[in-house]
Every structure is written in C-alpha cells, then in structure tokens.
Amino acid sequence: MKRQFAFLGGEKNVLNSARLRKMLSSSSTSEAGNLNSYPIGWLSRSRGRSLLERVSVRRSLLPQADQKNAISFSSTGNYDEETDIYEIHRYVLEQFQNQAKEVPRLTKEINELKAKLESGQLRVVDVKLIQSMIDKLQKEIQTRISEEKRKEYLERVSPILEEWDLLREKEGPYFKFGEEKKFSPAKLTLIRSFIQVATEYSPLDLTLKPIQASGVCPYCRKPFENEDGKIVCYECGFYQDSLTYEAEFSDLPRINGSSNNNYVNRETFLKALCCYQGKQKVDFPAELWVKFDDYCAFNHIQKSGLNYERTRPIFKSIGYSGFFDDINLFLFMHPEIRKKLPDIGEYESLIIQDYDQFTQKYAEIKGDERDSALNAWYLLYILCRRRGIPCNRCDLKMPDTPAIRISNDNIARKVFEALGWTFEDTI
C-alpha cells in the first residue's frame, strides 16, 4: 500500500481529513478522534514515523476505557504502599450495584420460611428461630435496596480519597530511571485507613504484606522500642502488646496476677487468638495424618478446598476432636493443602483492649441470661468485625447450633449498645 502524507502548504499527496478519520475510526480515542483540534503540521511525517504509527504507539501507552474500569486487584490477600485505593473503591461500588440482584433470591428464602411457619408443626423454639431468620432477611433486603449505606460509605471515604489525590499529585506521575524508590509511610497509612472503612461495606480480606526486616515498624520502617513487653514506635505511634506464645497457657493465671474466673476466660480467649493464627506449638500424632488422608480419599474430599469449618467434622469422624483448636495449623502444615494462616498480629492489642472492655460490661448486664462466658472464638469474630479487621468465620471454631448463636447475638448486642459500639448479627 502506498503511503500518503499531508504537508503544510503542499498540493501533492494531501490526505483528506475525512479519509483520515475513516482510517482511524476503528480504534479512535479522545486524544486522536478529534483531528480538528490539531494543526495541519501535526499530520506530517515526523522523526521517521507516520501519523498512524505515532497514534498507534500513543494508544499503546494510554489506558483504554475498559482497562480503566477493570478491577485488577484481588479482594483477598496482602496490601502494601503500592496498592491503589481507587481499585478497591471501584470494587466496593460494584458490590453496591450487585446487591439488588440478590433481592429475588432473598425474597424466595423468606417465602419458603413463611411456608414452614404456616405448616403448624413446629416447636415454639423453632418458630422463634424461623421468625428471627425472616426478620433478618427482610432487614437485609431493605439494606440492599436502600442508598443509605452507599451514601454513608462515600461520606466516610471522601476525605481519604482527597488526601490520596493530594499525595499522589505531590508524588508525581513519573519515576526517574535509576532513582531509588522511597518508602512513603503517609501513603501506607491512607491505604490502611481506606481498607478498614471499605471492609465494613464489602467482602474484603486484605492484610498488610509482611516485610523482610525484623524489629522495625511495619508502617514507617523505623526501629521498634521494646519497653517492658510493649512494642512501641515513637515515629508513627504504633503500639502492640508483645505476647509470648511459647509460654504454657496454664501459666497465664500467674502472669495475670488473678485468681478468679476472669483470668480463666481471658486465658481461653488469648488461646483462641493464638490458635486462630496457628501460633501455638503442637505435635500432631503420625496416625492423625494417615487417618485424615484415608478419610478424604474414601469420601472423595478435595483437600485443596478445605477450611476449618469443613475440616472439623472430619476430625470428629476419625476420633481427633481434641485437636479442634489446632485445625488451622494442621491445614497449613499438611503438604497437600498448605492453607495460608490468618494473620491479625498487627491488631492484637486493639482486640485484647476491646475484649477487656466487653467482658467488664458483660459481667454488669448479663444477669441470669447466661451463667458462663461467651464462646472465645465467637468473641474473637465479633470483636474483629467491630474494627473491620479481616476475619473469616469459616476459619473459626464457632458454635454449631443456630439457637446458641442467636442467644449469643442477643446478649452481645446488649453489651455493644451499652459500650456505644455497632453490632452486626452473626446469623
């Protein structure tokens, strides 16, 4: 094909602008689509490349419309200072758009539950349970069709996005070749703050990416100060209790200096916090591995899809109920599974602080409703949700019976309200 070029003031081989538009129409962009905005001289051959070649190169560098809207991050995994919060923002907005699509399914569930109520062959406790489930589903439908949550989310993240834009503007769009990239603690703080808010409105399971260096703050990379078992970063204010997980849990009462049931409950909670993350020391019997593999093979169970919730019945069936607390660690150690362990180490001090406040208020208002403390794993779950801390219920030793969970929710809701916290039902 003979190439034609437009020359300023020339008469030969002038490329008609309409024809040029036609040639570019198959992949036009806002930069190249409106040719009238460019002087004729721009159409001439420059530096050995034709107009079409230069437009093609330019388009290869610019993000296309579908690429701008694409969500390239995973809602599960790690985040660091390179994470783009606008990717997360678009993901959350997409979740709001998809919520209405679930309304027909939820309505169908309500109708099925109502049909059970009309059968008239239920116990009083079952009627209460079903009615509670119906109320919860109706509340969920109202939440999905309402714009209040979306507006609330936008109000909360707007200040963070504004700070992010200012920070990126100062940072500039380019990075000089050969220049060492500097770590930005302010950037990471904004990302972390945004994720904490976004997690309350969408299914996110993002944790801070571990750093190679030890003894430094994960947020500002400055050396830690260890003061009487407290890890402190004076640069950014990071604070964390240094828990020694090698200590025997039976020794915690002496460490806590307590002699009543409170220390037993706290001991159980700290153990749950430890076991959830697989930080305990356990010697699994060799027979356990063999029986587990044989059971999975006999029942055609895909090991790669196992979590705590699905593994617990297997342990019960093969006679190892005594290792329920250690299932997360077992799944991590199994050579064919290698399930990633939950990591909420950076939030432990906040969780323990909330636990102490909760148990103090719980003792004041529980009355005769319950004679014992709530399930430690259940407590860990609701306290994590309160803070927007990533915590998957499928990885926790939660109560099996719905009636117990409803009872737990009822008393926990009262405690949360007394503390001025927002409670989310677990069932």
UniProtKB/TrEMBL annotation:
GO terms for biological process: regulation of viral transcription. It holds the Pfam family Pox_VLTF3. Keywords: Coiled coil. This is Viral late gene transcription factor 3 zinc ribbon domain-containing protein. It comes from viral metagenome. InterPro entries: Poxvirus_VLTF3. Residues 96-123 form a coiled coil.
